[in-house]
């Protein structure tokens, strides 16, 4: 049975999943939330691959509640967040 926090994480993952698979690379979830990325700008994905990753992680953080942002930004809790948000991704990267 999922805790309330895990349920919140799982529901949040639905916002950046397609057909139950994250469209966000698991390694992208390891990035810190960038400062200064305008997630409303239609040109946010026009830059280099790194700038595109920064735009993605900025959108992920923006979609989360403050408590979930804290979990994702805390190194000791990040892996737990990733395993709850997408168990398939966590299994894939742990093999």
Provide a descriptive summary of the structure in words.
The longest helix is centred in the middle third of the chain and has 15 residues, at 49-63. Helix 4 (75-85) packs across helix 5. The protein is mostly helical. It has five helices and two strands, in the order H-E-E-H-H-H-H. A hairpin with a 2-residue loop joins strand 1 and strand 2 (21-22). It has one domain. Helices cover 55% and strands 4% of the residues. A two-stranded antiparallel ribbon has the order 1-2. The protein is globular and about 40 Å long.
Short characterization:
With 95 residues, this protein is mostly helical.
Topology:
Blueprint: H1 4-13, E1 17-18, E2 21-22, H2 49-63, H3 66-73, H4 75-85, H5 87-94
Helix pairs in contact: 4-5
The biggest sheet amounts to: 2 strands, antiparallel
Count of domain modules: 1
Q: Structural class of the helix and strand makeup?
A: mainly alpha
**Total count of helical runs of at least 4 residues:** 5
Q: What is the beta-strand fraction?
A: under 5%
Radius of gyration: 13 Å
Helix content: 40-55%
List keywords for this structure.
95 residues; mainly alpha; two-stranded antiparallel sheet; 5 helices; 55% helix; globular; disordered C terminus
């Amino acid at each position: 049975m999922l805790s309330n926090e895990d349920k919140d994480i799982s529901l949040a993952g639905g916002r950046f999943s397609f057909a139950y698979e994250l469209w966000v690379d698991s390694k992208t979830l390891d990035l810190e939330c960038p400062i200064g990325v305008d997630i409303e700008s239609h040109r946010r994905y026009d830059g280099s691959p790194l700038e595109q990753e920064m735009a993605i992680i900025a959108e992920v953080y923006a979609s989360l509640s403050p408590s979930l942002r804290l979990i994702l930004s805390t190194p000791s809790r990040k892996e737990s967040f990733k395993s709850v948000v997408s168990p398939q991704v966590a299994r894939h990267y742990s093999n």
